[in-house]
């Protein structure tokens, strides 16, 4: 095996491992706190972030925007400007 295919294989493996770590499920409270901290840091005011069961998201209509998934994909975080 030459160096280039080995380098390609190692790069692909590293990318896949990185994506797996980033896709790890987070508890809703933890993800909500992280997003709220980023919004507060940017000076965003008057918003609400709520964890909603997946089957209830459609009932919100256009009022709320889905901004994340949490609790192993069982819930969605929604964002509403007030």
UniProtKB/TrEMBL annotation:
InterPro entries: DUF1161. Residues 1-23 form the signal peptide. It holds the Pfam family DUF1161. Keywords: Signal. This is DUF1161 domain-containing protein.
């Amino acid at each position: 095996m030459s160096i280039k295919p080995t380098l390609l294989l190692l790069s692909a493996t590293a990318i896949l491992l990185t994506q797996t770590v980033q896709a790890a499920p987070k508890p809703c409270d933890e993800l909500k706190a992280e997003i709220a901290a980023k919004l507060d840091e940017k000076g965003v005011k008057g918003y609400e972030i709520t964890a909603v069961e997946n089957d209830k998201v459609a009932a919100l209509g256009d009022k709320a925007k889905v901004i994340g998934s949490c609790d192993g994909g069982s819930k969605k975080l929604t964002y509403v400007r007030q």
